[in-house]
């Protein structure tokens, strides 16, 4: 993959690479949204779908650009049919001086470090609250007072 980048870079400074694809699956009446995002360090693609994150192949990403899964055309139309389509693409300019290495956590500005710390503390409090809830029992007491 790196040799492809180098080949493109030799063509000039205006070279861009796809790094994220937002996907809609369904119809105009309703559907589901998810995203494919490329990790710059490992060059691997991941699918972010609700609360799950899974590794994806480059072919998985390319299949979101329309067409049928079999690649065959319909008898009545010349277009491909698919209910899963990329609707937003994100590119970045390939510039080794600017984006060769992503920021590491220790390079983040202080306000972002503080925000991350607050979020981690909130997650910890929420985990403790859930653990406490597991150790509690809810009981309902019915009492009857006989009439005098």
UniProtKB/TrEMBL annotation:
One Pfam family named in its UniProt record: UCH
GO cellular component: a single term: nucleus
SUPFAM superfamilies: Cysteine proteinases
Entry-linked InterPro entries: Papain-like_cys_pep_sf, Peptidase_C19, Peptidase_C19_UCH, USP, USP_CS
GO biological process entries: protein deubiquitination
An annotated Gene Ontology molecular function: cysteine-type deubiquitinase activity
Domain of life assignment: Eukaryota
Protein family according to the UniProt entry: Belongs to the peptidase C19 family.
Name under which the protein is recorded: Uncharacterized protein
């Amino acid at each position: 993959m790196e040799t492809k980048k180098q080949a493109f870079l030799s063509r000039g400074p205006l070279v861009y690479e796809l790094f994220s694809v937002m996907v809609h699956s369904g119809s105009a009446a309703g559907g589901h949204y998810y995203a494919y995002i490329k990790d710059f360090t490992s060059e691997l693609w991941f699918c972010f779908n609700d609360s799950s994150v899974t590794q994806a192949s480059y072919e998985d990403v390319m299949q979101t650009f329309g067409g049928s899964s079999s690649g065959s055309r319909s008898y009545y139309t010349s277009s491909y049919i698919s209910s899963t389509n990329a609707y937003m693409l994100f590119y970045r300019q390939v510039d080794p001086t600017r984006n060769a290495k992503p920021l590491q956590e220790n390079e983040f500005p202080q306000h972002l470090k503080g925000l991350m710390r607050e979020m981690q503390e909130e997650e910890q409090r929420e985990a403790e609250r859930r653990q406490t809830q597991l150790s509690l029992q809810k009981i309902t007491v019915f009492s009857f007072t006989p009439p005098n």
